[in-house]
Amino acid sequence: MKFGIISTANIARKALIPAMKRSDKAEVVAIASGSGQAQAVADEHGIPKAYDRYEDVLADPDIDAVYIPLPNHLHKEWVMKAAEAGKHILCEKPAGLNAREMEEMEAVCREHDVVFMEAFMYQFHKQHERVKELMAAGEIGDVTLVRASFSFPLREPAGNIRVDRHKGGGSIYDVGSYCLHTFQNILDDGVDEVFVEADMSDEFGVDMSAQGIVTMKSGVRGMFDSGFNTEMRHEYEVVGTHGTIKVSRAYRPDAFGHEGHVIVEKAGITRDERIMSDQYKEEVDHFVEAIEQGVEPRNSYDMSKQNMAAIDACYESVKTGRKVKV
């Protein structure tokens, strides 16, 4: 599958382009940048074509699919343009700024018969399938609570796109979205109601951290926290009536050589499981396979729409100080 990359964002340079090079299912043939960096990045990664306009990637007949790691507020525009150009789309999370945008993107992608997938890469690490296996086997009894945390230190926020309120900045959009997605993914359930409080920056007008209580449709509770003001934390814990399962490297196991870490605690006994999996490569492979097979990818339209609706509800709760139905 021949890919074009729309933007020279860090996530593309450091994670997705290398992952595509590790995959035998993908080939990066072009990259575009509006800042004039495309040729330098193309030279660095051995990419044959460099463009100074995103439109040129979409017009290239050699390209089958595009990866879009643009700022959040540009996702909808370029997803729709890519779909109209007949390119399959792997788009960074969050899919858009709200659920309505996701619905509009879905309609255009379906109209032009292209595959779309929101790039929540973490879900493709095999440690999460192991968690689901343990839950299904009754290892910890009935699940009553899931706690998820994703935060990191943003030491020099000024000028960082993550705190630009005009471009979809804020900790819930950036890292809290992973926690909300985890509740859906691990529990195979939708979010029904949220109550969220946040530390809103007077300077930037975005949430620098947030803490939320989530009620799933099944009645299981979720608790999450996200933020730009702590050391790196990327973990979740599934709490059951007879034990717990903790995933201590939930979202960035690539920082540990791709090694996942699942900890089962039951009846005073702790068991550690180490699981190797290249989540970015697995993501690329799955996306290509979905295109080849003509099926909807694992991270479906419904999951993306539900996650965006949950994010919408979180921000509405922060604004109103009340519980909000999704």
UniProtKB/TrEMBL annotation:
Pfam family, one: GFO_IDH_MocA
Tagged with keyword Repeat: no
SUPFAM superfamilies: Glyceraldehyde-3-phosphate dehydrogenase-like, C-terminal domain, NAD(P)-binding Rossmann-fold domains
Entry keyword set: Oxidoreductase
Residue stretches spanning the membrane: none
Keyword Oxidoreductase part of the UniProt annotation: yes
Residue span, Gfo/Idh/MocA-like oxidoreductase N-terminal domain: 2-119
InterPro entries according to UniProt: Gfo/Idh/MocA-like_OxRdtase_N, Gfo/Idh/MocA_domain, GFO_IDH_MocA-like_dom, NAD(P)-bd_dom_sf
GFO/IDH/MocA-like oxidoreductase domain mapped to chain residues: 129-245
Database matches in Gene3D superfamilies: Dihydrodipicolinate Reductase, domain 2, NAD(P)-binding Rossmann-like Domain
Entry similarity comment: Belongs to the Gfo/Idh/MocA family.
Protein name (record): Dehydrogenase
Biological source species: Alkalibacillus flavidus
